[in-house]
Design goal:
- Strand 5 and strand 6 (145-152) form a beta hairpin.
- This protein is an alpha+beta fold.
- The strands form three sheets. Strands 3, 4, 8, 9, 10 and 11 form a six-stranded antiparallel β-sheet that branches. A three-stranded antiparallel β-sheet has the order 5-6-7. The protein has a two-stranded antiparallel ribbon with strand order 1-2.
- Helix 6 (102-117) packs antiparallel against helix 14 (315-336).
- The protein folds into three domains: 4-76, Winged helix-like DNA-binding domain superfamily/Winged helix DNA-binding domain (Arc Repressor Mutant, subunit A, Orthogonal Bundle), CATH 1.10.10.10; 85-125 and 223-336, Beta-Lactamase, CATH 3.30.450; 133-219, Enolase-like, domain 1, CATH 3.30.390.
- The two termini are 19 Å apart.
- Helices cover 47% and strands 18% of the residues.
- It contains 14 helices and eleven strands.
Length: 351
């Protein structure tokens, strides 16, 4: 447990270092915290914080730099954080200006997040636990060749070419498509498999194909996320000073492994989660922090929105931004599915 004075000093160190990116002196803490104690007392407190692993000081007279433990303590004591109402209204207005298309919403969310926190933002497409059939279209291309267009709940669209053993006309394909669309509405691929009985050879072949498309969709762990703000992160002082730090992030993006590295193994719908430095499971992210949240309809279809940046990031603003954008996206996804928006979740800043 830290005393109130020590806690105040740590908060001042972290806050000033986030803003200035330079080691924090005892004199600047005296000016910032207004504790009414001498610089000598503050230096003693700083020495205690260094001994306990909250900060580091190259030598006794040097300024202080927060360590992961210091950032964690700072984040855990932030309390409930929200974006100013004027920013919430602006964001809501901007979403009303774009087309009612999922990709437009996700791209805008990534851009707005990056602009507000000046770090890399990522947004994934919401994914269902098991995709659901919506309707089917069949288009005749040649006598025995047809294009299967499968529309899933979400919405998602899959396409596949089918070659039949016999000639099938467009009117026949339309009849089959209407029949199967009515039979399989809102079903998962396993439910379709169980229901697919008493079908004609052509209907069975089409059913097998759409099950194949749905199984492939279910097997995809992640899609490539919408990314924005890389230039902000690469302009941070830490990355300008440390080329290897910048390269590690670039490699994750180029190798398309950023998403797998960033998302924690136990990401839940409990609001915003903050993973700091060595709390990241990926070695290449041990000098970064991740602020991330799920959005969507819990238990049905969920995506993620998050921010990656150096451990010296504006945590309060980042948490507030991710929290609000996740609420906006959840409401939009609910509208897309004809549901009510889920209730707001409190942030979970612990790993």
């Amino acid at each position: 447990m830290l005393s109130l004075r020590t806690e105040t000093i740590l908060k001042s160190i972290v806050g000033q270092y986030i803003t200035k990116a330079t080691p924090v002196s005892s004199h600047s803490i005296t000016s910032d915290a207004e504790l009414g104690v001498s610089s000598a007392t503050i230096r003693n407190e700083m020495a205690h914080l260094a001994q306990e692993g909250y900060i580091t000081r190259p030598h006794p007279s040097a300024g202080s730099v927060p360590l992961d433990k210091g950032y964690r303590r700072y984040v855990d004591t932030l309390g409930d954080i929200t974006l100013p109402l004027i920013e919430q209204r602006l964001i809501s207005h901007l979403f009303h200006q774009v087309e009612s298309k999922l990709d437009e919403w996700l791209n805008l969310a990534a851009t707005l997040t990056a602009q507000r926190v000046h770090n890399v933002s990522l947004v994934t497409t919401p994914k269902t636990k098991a995709c659901q059939f919506k309707h089917l279209e069949l288009v005749s291309l040649q006598d025995s060749l047809a294009l299967l267009v499968l529309v899933l709940r979400g919405p998602k669209v899959g396409q596949l070419l089918i070659t039949f053993d016999q000639t099938v006309s467009q009117p026949e394909l339309t009849v089959i498509a209407n029949k199967l669309s009515a039979m399989y509405s809102d079903l998962t691929c396993s439910q379709i498999s169980a229901k697919a009985t008493g079908l004609s050879p052509a209907e069975q072949q089409i059913t097998d194909c759409l099950i194949e498309v749905m199984e492939a969709e279910d097997s995809q762990e992640y899609e490539e996320p919408y990314l924005d703000g890389l230039h902000f992160t690469l302009s941070q002082p830490e990355l300008l000073r440390n080329r290897e730090l910048a390269l590690s992030l670039m490699e994750l993006i180029e190798q398309r492994s950023l998403l797998r590295s960033v998302i924690p193994s136990k990401l839940t719908g409990k609001g915003v989660q903050v993973i700091i430095g060595k709390e990241n499971r990926a070695e290449t992210l041990r000098d970064y922090s991740v602020v991330i949240s799920q959005y969507g309809l819990p238990g049905e279809t969920v995506g993620t929105i998050g921010v990656i940046g150096p451990t010296r990031m504006p945590y309060a603003r980042t948490i507030a931004t991710v929290s609000y954008l996740s609420q906006v996206l959840s409401a939009l996804v609910a509208k897309l599915y004809g549901r009510e928006a889920p209730a707001r979740q409190d942030s979970d800043t612990a790993d």
